[in-house]
Amino acid sequence: MRKRTKFLTLLILSLVISTLLAACGDRGKQTGGELPFKSEIFFVGSSSMAPVISQLADQFTNQFRTWDQVDPGLPAAEIKISVATGGSGAGAKAVLDGTADFGMLARDTREEERGALANYREIKIGMDALVIAVKQDNPLARQRRDIGAAELRQIFAGEISRWNELDPALPAKEIVLLVRDVGGGAHEVFQKAIMGKSDFSDRAVQVHSMPSLVSRLAGNRQAIGYASYGVADQFREELAVFSLDGVVPSAENIMNGSYPVARPLVLVWNGELSAAEQAFLDYIRSPAGARVITEMGFLPLP
Amino acid sequence: MLHCRFEKLFAATVKGLTVAALFILLFIILFILKESLVVFRQVSIGDFIFGGQWRPVSLNLRLGLWPILTASLVLSALALALALPPAVGAALFLAHVCPDRLGRPLRSLIAIMAGIPSVVYGFAGVVLLLPILERLFKMSSGDSLLAGGIVLGVMILPFIIATTTESMEAAAQGHSVVSRAMGVSRWYMLRRLVLPVSRMGIIAGAVLGVSRAMGETMAVIMVVGNSPLLPTELLGRIKPIPALIALEIGSAPLGSIHYHALFGAGFVLLVLLLAINLLFYFLRKRLVS
């Protein structure tokens, strides 16, 4: 009994002490050298871009660990890349305030944002596009593979709620709308490009992630939904993809902007890049970076 | 000597950790309250709770929690209604009917049921339950209040069974020997003695089950469709509070009205749970006296 108490005490003590020690670690480790080398990069902005940058940062950190592994000319400081979300607007603002190194904007930058920064710089790292899809054997898909933006708005606003209202030859079944959660990136793109000022129907089924949305879409004949380009591509056997007013959602059409349900992924910064920042940007634009962007469901820009 | 000092140290550590845990809880509640107060500066509490539409990012902003709040209540009630009868039956069986040799493995099986991650229940719901409902009721999509109720009902079963079994075992002490001596049949004893005496335990199990059901998120998100509609039909889609928060908090910009409204929803959920627990507490008090 006594022995056990002692053991427990030691266990708890050691736990507490190790937590305290862990909290103290990493402090005061400064890199030497003439110029203070900044080994940390901080991203703030869009919540749809954050997972991509996080994933890129993870891969980058796992591959190199310290900056001198990336480029022998850099000091052997640990690579630290942090990502925080707060929306595209918050990203632009953080760069302006100097609280972040990069802003992540999942939209085109605004005139006032460009004007506010003394040395405004940006690069587009990719495109986020949504394709309109149904299951392969959906009755509408058998008839046609094109849909009008106006029709689409009516369907997603709930003004057209049964397939036969679209065409009397179709069954009188409910159109199941599959959408992502309100306020998310995909919702925002679709709202802007298709819905305009209309609200989504309250009856729409909100699915918690894009892969599960697409797999639900692939399993339900009565459903229609928007799918991010990358995920829809993984399911291309099971899905029928619609062109929008005649424009096919091909990589080419998305890149040149003729397919409307898309938006750019932009990184914004102020002034010159540090060596570390340049190295990470180079990684994002490398084939390995492009692969990560594709895996996350977006189209990398060359 | 040494172990005496250790003893004191141990006591102090344990006390310190307990206080810390309480403070964390207090801090969480205060934080949620503080974050949600912002929304009530823009929307009145009445409108927030009784408003019929939830459109947090629309041009004509609406922050009405009523369909979502009622969905949470109706869903938990449905889950409880589905789970309680089989749970009480199972508890009676485990406590008094089934032989020990079968009882022990059965109990550990039920304990395992409580430990299955909720996403697994949700997955089973999507893959097994939704297609069945679609075929059975000719629905376009199986996501519904009923699907959520069934999945949740199964999830809270082990909690109710465990609590109820314990109280039924305790309830029969003394009675069973006397009943047998007087030649009363086992079923009569169970019906007229054990069941009424163990109603406290049944209520406790129900409270535990409802509390769990109200807060369950992942399994529910996967099968209820998450459309903010009033829970008026069994086959209609709903969006309970945990689903609302989990789905939308990730994309609500920090400090926006949407963000604070979600905290407001969390606070309402907290108050609801507290109210339900208090209600049962008073019910119990009245039953005892």
Q: What is the terminal-to-terminal distance of chain A?
A: 69 Å
Helix content of chain A: 40-55%
State the helicity of chain B in percent bands.
over 70%
Mean pLDDT of chain A: 85
Signal peptide (chain A): 1-22
InterPro entries (chain A): PBP_domain, Phosphate_ABC_transporter
Domain PBP (chain A): 40-286
Keywords (chain A): Signal
Properties at a glance:
heterodimer; A: 302 residues; alpha/beta; D-Maltodextrin-Binding Protein, domain 2; eleven-stranded mixed β-sheet; 22% strand; elongated; B: 289 residues; MetI-like fold; two-stranded antiparallel ribbon; globular
Written account of the structure:
- The complex is a heterodimer of chains A (about 300) and B (about 290).
- Chain A is elongated and about 70 Å long.
- Chain A is α/β, with parallel strands linked by helices and about 300 residues long.
- Chain A has 14 helices and 11 strands.
- Chain B has helices at about 1-40, 45-50, 65-95, 100-115, 120-135, 145-170, 175-180, 185-195, 200-215, 220-225, 240-250, 255-289, and strands at about 55, 60-65.
- The mean pLDDT of chain B is about 90.
- Chain B is built from 12 helices and 2 strands; from the N terminus they run ααββαααααααααα.
- In chain B, strands 1-2 form a two-stranded antiparallel sheet.
- With about 290 residues, chain B is mostly helical.
In short:
The complex is a heterodimer of chains A (302) and B (289). Chain A is an alpha/beta fold and 302 residues long. Chain A folds into two domains: 30-128 and 264-300, Periplasmic binding protein-like II (D-Maltodextrin-Binding Protein, domain 2, 3-Layer(aba) Sandwich), CATH 3.40.190.10; 129-263, Periplasmic binding protein-like II (D-Maltodextrin-Binding Protein, domain 2, 3-Layer(aba) Sandwich), CATH 3.40.190.
